[in-house]
Design goal:
Glucose Permease (Domain IIA); 51% helix; alpha+beta
Length: 416
C-alpha cells in the first residue's frame, strides 16, 4: 500500500487530555506509600501518558491539595499576625479608654475648682462692698475723730487697737480677693487644659476602637482563608480516597489489555506472508523522542505500571508512517491507548501506534514501509498529542530504541 493523502479531520478524533499532577514522593495520609526513589520520581514527572494521567478527578483533587498545602503556611502566618495585631489594638484601646476616663475625671475636678474659686470671689466681693458702704456712711475722718475724742489714755489705746483690727481685717479681705482672683485664673487654665486632654484622650480611644474593629475584620478574614484551605485539602483527600479503587481498576485494565495484545500478536505472528527485513524506520521522520520505556508509579497511590513504548513528539494531525512493511492485524479505539493500530511484520515482529486522531488503514490491509497509516492525536489516557510507539517480538514489548542504535532487549519492567 502507498501513502494515502487523507486529512486527519476525515477520520476519528478523540482528545481527552488530562492535567498531569506530579508532586514527587507523596505519602498522602495512608493513601499510598512514600517513595524515596528519585530516579523513578523523575521518570514519573516526565511521562506523557500511561496511568500517571489516568484519573482526571484525582489529578484535579491533587492539584487543589497541592495548591492548598503551599498556601497554608503563609495563610496561617497572616492569621497569626492578624490575631496579634487584634490583641495589640484591643490593648491600645483599653489604655486609651482608661486615659480618657482619667482625663475626664481631671476635667470635672478642674471645673469644680473654677466654681469654688468663683464662689470665693463672689464672697470677697460682698465683703468689700460692705466695707465701701460703711466707709461712705461714716465719712473719711470718722476713725480719726474717734481716737481724738478719747478722754483717757486707756480709751485712746482701746480705740486705736480697734481701728487697727478693723484695718487689718479690711487688708486681709482685700488680700483674699487678690488671691481668689489668682486662684480663679489658675483654675480656669487648669480646667481648659484638662478638657483639652480629655478631648484628645476621647479621640484616641475612638481611633483605637476603629483600629481594633479593622484588626478584628482582618483577623476574621485571615482565619477564614485558613479554614477554607483546610477544607479544600480535606475535600481533595476525600476525592482521592473515593477514586482509589477506580484508579486501581484502570491499572488492572491496562495490564489486561497488554496481555490481550500479546496473545493477539502471537495468534497472528504469521499473518504477513512477505519477507521481513527485521529493520524499522522512525514512524514520524525527524520527530524527537519525548519519553522512553520504563516503570511508572502513580504519584498518589503508588500503583505500579510499565510504560512499554516510546512517546514521540508530534503536533495534532501529524502523519504517522508504517515502521516496516506488514499487515494490519488490529485497529481499535479503546482504553488507555485510545485509537491504536498494530501491524505484524512477520517473524514474530509487530509494531503498535497509539493515541491516534485518525487512521487510513483497516484490519487485514497490507502496508509498506513509510506508508501513512494514521495521524497523531490525543485519544486514550494522555496529557497531550503525541505518538506512543511500541515494538513487540513474539508479543513481548521491546525497547524500540534497540532498532535505532540501542540494544534490542525486552522492556525491563515488563512482567506479562
Amino acid at each position: 500500500m502507498h501513502n494515502r493523502a487523507v486529512h486527519p479531520s476525515l477520520h476519528v478524533h478523540i482528545a481527552t487530555p488530562v492535567v498531569v499532577i506530579l508532586v514527587g514522593a507523596l505519602a498522602l495520609m495512608g493513601l499510598g506509600p512514600a517513595r524515596a526513589d528519585n530516579s523513578i520520581d523523575h521518570q514519573v514527572s516526565q511521562a506523557s501518558d500511561d496511568f500517571v494521567t489516568a484519573s482526571k478527578a484525582v489529578n484535579a483533587a491533587m492539584a487543589q491539595w497541592s495548591a492548598a498545602r503551599q498556601q497554608l503556611p503563609l495563610a496561617r502566618s497572616k492569621a497569626q499576625a492578624a490575631g496579634d495585631q487584634l490583641v495589640r489594638a484591643h490593648t491600645l484601646h483599653d489604655q486609651a479608654v482608661a486615659d480618657a476616663h482619667r482625663a475626664t475625671a481631671a476635667a470635672v475636678a478642674a471645673a469644680g475648682k473654677v466654681v469654688a474659686a468663683q464662689h470665693q470671689i463672689d464672697t470677697t466681693n460682698s465683703q468689700i462692698d460692705a466695707l465701701i458702704r460703711n466707709a461712705y456712711a461714716q465719712g473719711p475722718y470718722t476713725e480719726m475723730a474717734a481716737i481724738l475724742t478719747s478722754t483717757t489714755p486707756s480709751e485712746f489705746a482701746e480705740r486705736l487697737a480697734s481701728l487697727q483690727a478693723v484695718a487689718k481685717s479690711q487688708n486681709e479681705t482685700l488680700a483674699a480677693f487678690t488671691v481668689a482672683k489668682a486662684d480663679l485664673a489658675l483654675a480656669k487654665a487648669q480646667a481648659e487644659q484638662s478638657k483639652a486632654l480629655a478631648d484628645a484622650a476621647q479621640r484616641k480611644a475612638a481611633s483605637a476602637l476603629t483600629s481594633a474593629n479593622v484588626a478584628a475584620q482582618q483577623a476574621k478574614a485571615a482565619q477564614s482563608k485558613v479554614d477554607g484551605l483546610v477544607a479544600q485539602t480535606s475535600r481533595a483527600l476525600r476525592v482521592a480516597a473515593a477514586h482509589k479503587r477506580s484508579v486501581a481498576r484502570e491499572y488492572a485494565a491496562l495490564k489486561a489489555e497488554q496481555r490481550r495484545l500479546r496473545r493477539l500478536e502471537q495468534q497472528h505472528a504469521h499473518a504477513y506472508a512477505g519477507q521481513p527485513s527485521g529493520e524499522l524506520s522512525w514512524p514520524i521522520p525527524g520527530a524527537s523522542l519525548v519519553q522512553g520505556v520504563g516503570p511508572r508509579i502513580h504519584p498518589v497511590y503508588g500503583y505500579k505500571s510499565c510504560h512499554t513504548g516510546d512517546d514521540i513528539r508530534g503536533a495534532y494531525g501529524t502523519p504517522i508512517h508504517a515502521a516496516a512493511s506488514g499487515v494490519v492485524i488490529f485497529l481499535v479505539n479503546h482504553g488507555a491507548y485510545g485509537l491504536h493500530t498494530i501491524i505484524s511484520h512477520g517473524g514474530g515482529l509487530a509494531t503498535m501506534y497509539a493515541h491516534q486522531s485518525g487512521v487510513t488503514v483497516h484490519v487485514g490491509e497490507i502496508v509498506h514501509q513509510g506508508d501513512v497509516i494514521g495521524y497523531v492525536g490525543a485519544s486514550g489516557w494522555v496529557s497531550g498529542p503525541h505518538l506512543h510507539f511500541e515494538v513487540h517480538v513474539n508479543g513481548v514489548p521491546y525497547d524500540p530504541m534497540g532498532w535505532f542504535g540501542g540494544t534490542k532487549a525486552p522492556v525491563s519492567c515488563w512482567n506479562g
